[in-house]
Amino acid sequence: MTPRADDDPAAGHARALLRDATRYSGARCLVLCLVSIAATGAGLLLPAALGRALDLVLAHAPATRWVLCCAGLVLLLGLLDAVQTVLTGTVDARTTAWLRRRLTGHVLGAGPRAADRFGSGDLVARLVGNAAEAGTTPAARAALVAALAGPVGGVVALGLIDWWLAAVFLAGAPVLALLLRAVSRDTSESASRYQRAQGRIAAALAEAVEGVRTVRAAGTEGRETARVLRPLPDLSSAGHRMWRVQGRAAARAVAVAPLLQLAVVAVAGVLLTRDRLSVGEVLAASRYAVLATGVGVLVGRLAGLARARAAARRLGEVETEPATAYGTRGLPDGPGRLELRGVTARRGGRTVLDGVDLDVPGGTTLAVVGRSGAGKSLLAALAGRLADPDAGEVLLDGVPLRELPHEDLRGAVGYAFARPALLGGTVGQAIGLGLPSPSPGLVREAARTALADDFVRRLPDGYDTPVADAPRSGGESQRLGLARAFAHGGRLLILDDALSSLDTVTERRITDALFGDGPGTTRLLVAHRGATAACADAVAWLDGGRVRAVGRHEELWRFPEYRAVFGDGAGLDVTDADDGAVFRDGADPHPTDTDDRAMLRDGADPHPTDTDDQAMLRDGADPHPTDTDDQAMLRDGANPHPTDTDSGGPRPVRTPGAGRAGRDVTA
Ligand SMILES: Nc1ncnc2c1ncn2[C@@H]1O[C@H](COP(=O)(O)OP(=O)(O)OP(=O)(O)O)[C@@H](O)[C@H]1O
């Protein structure tokens, strides 16, 4: 059973959508309705005129006026039909365009939630296919009024000729009414099923196209095709059911309508023999009986409306995902201090981040590290309000992000991602995306900083090359994404694994430029590599949904579990940490080692000796790097001789220009 709109938010949204869409095409809909009614009126006048002309011809009276009247009505009907066709087409197109605009804006306004919930393929199916079906609603409703006016007018005309004729017709009318109701209900159900199956196919197809390389590599093209088309039987059965419903209705209508017409004509014949009707009136009555039983037209219209309603409901479902609301509180001048207070976020039924507190002073860099799935990307998304936390608050310069207007928020926060989407006509436009008027100079400068300028200039039309014609590797894409983030500016820059596809030398050069540009930008950096984390002023170590510790990379490095985050053999070794790491919730990163715990309390290094070196060697780091080691380190993007004093022993390897010691980032 179709749920009532009150119980079903999607149906409520669908009704509101259709109401607004109809209002948008209001004037045209009204004209269409009037034209349709005029056509129906002309259709209703024609039998009367024909009957009158016939009576006059039979009586050998002058009938030219009435014959001309009949010809005029036929011409008018043709003209109105043409206008109706054109108007229906334009109203459908306008309404569809309006629905697509509104839904596209809504989907993008809702952010990643909508794509997560529906899947990109299904969303595309809704915004393309279902919007086109739902877009026929206003015109179909207008036409339905006229389609209803035909039978109603036919019955009235029968009553005007003789009330017996109307009475005979009305006696059989309830059967027709039941028939129409069943058509509308059954078509609605099967149309919903049909459209759902279409959506599932579209979603699976989008996944398969996205992962076409994986499919090819696995050699599973056949299996994938079968998976994409798995809903086909359901689609087919829903489609067949739809046609069966309409076919059955049409068959019943074919059975019931002629019987009714026959009854009307028979009664008209009887009335003719009693001289209550003329021959012309019998002719008119037979035509009106056909009009009054015009169920075929109604069945088609009702089925179309039912499909449109089912499609509108699928659009309504998309609208149930609320668009992000923005505040009106302006962002004051400030250094870009970022605070997370008790931030909790749930995904897929589990709490991924649980009461996270962080404080990143303006102009500093915080690296976020943690095992895969620890919630780093989620935290990065919350920090710039790509998503809202389920509890807690994120503040920029003391203002909760929720209270900021859209412009202030997006102007203040720049993002770069691991797999950036390059949107915009040309490469230059993709870099300047989101800026009110990006100058070519700014775009180039940003590209130079991101080390993208060289390869962009090698493209056929340089910065004017269409994005689609700019073949690029994963690393080149990332550099364009970084260029976009650099061009954006803003007081907070969030890099979500945005350096992961870069070779280590390029990464190093970019981080040099990034961290060397002085204060003014606060940076949050999701890092997988130790060398990247080492560039930051502080590292927040996420584990089990919480911040396990905050400290400098070299301070945290002593803890095997921290080192394990980067995998064996990753990067840096530390023997002189000052235990500045701040552990959260009393969590000890090295809980099994009681000595370490004691030493941490006393501020001493738990592994200051050769044993320590062994541990480091176990973890893949060489405490006494030689020239050969230097080469290896350079390969890894780390500088083996960052300062003269550092070069003599197992010191933290730090990237020059980075990690301004002395600034703290606290939890
Ligand atoms: N939309 C979602 N629905 C369900 N679960 C989600 C969703 N988004 C994220 N998650 C889950 O939240 C957890 C954290 O994801 P996130 O991408 O933040 O991890 P991460 O630390 O960045 O991982 P990685 O280092 O592998 O990129 C993961 O277990 C992920 O499966």
Which keywords apply here?
single chain, 667 residues, alpha/beta, ABC transporter transmembrane region fold, Rossmann fold, 2 domains, seven-stranded mixed β-sheet, four-stranded antiparallel β-sheet, binds adenosine-5'-triphosphate
Q: How many separate domains make up the residues? A: 2
In angstroms, what is the radius of gyration?
A: 37 Å
Question: Which residues sit in consecutive blocks of at least 5 with pLDDT less than 50?
Answer: 1-5, 569-580, 585-667
Give the strand content. 5-15%
- Look at the structure and name the CATH superfamily of the largest domain: ABC transporter type 1, transmembrane domain
What binds here, in terms of ligands, is:
adenosine-5'-triphosphate
Task: Tell me the strand order in the biggest sheet.
Answer: 6-7-8-3-9-10-11
The count of β-strands is 11
Number of helices: 25
What helical percentage do the residues reach?
55-70%
The CATH class label of the largest domain is Mainly Alpha
Describe this structure in words.
The protein has 667 residues and is an alpha/beta fold. The protein is 59% helix and 10% strand. The protein has 2 domains: 9-195 and 247-319, ABC transporter transmembrane region fold (Up-down Bundle); 363-397 and 491-667, 3-Layer(aba) Sandwich (Rossmann fold), CATH 3.40.50.300. It has 25 helices and 11 strands. It starts with 8 loop residues before the first helix and ends in a 32-residue tail after the last helix. The relative contact order is 0.08. The model is unreliable at 1-5, 569-580 and 585-667 (pLDDT under 50). Adenosine-5'-triphosphate binds at residues 116, 347-348, 352, 370, 372-378.
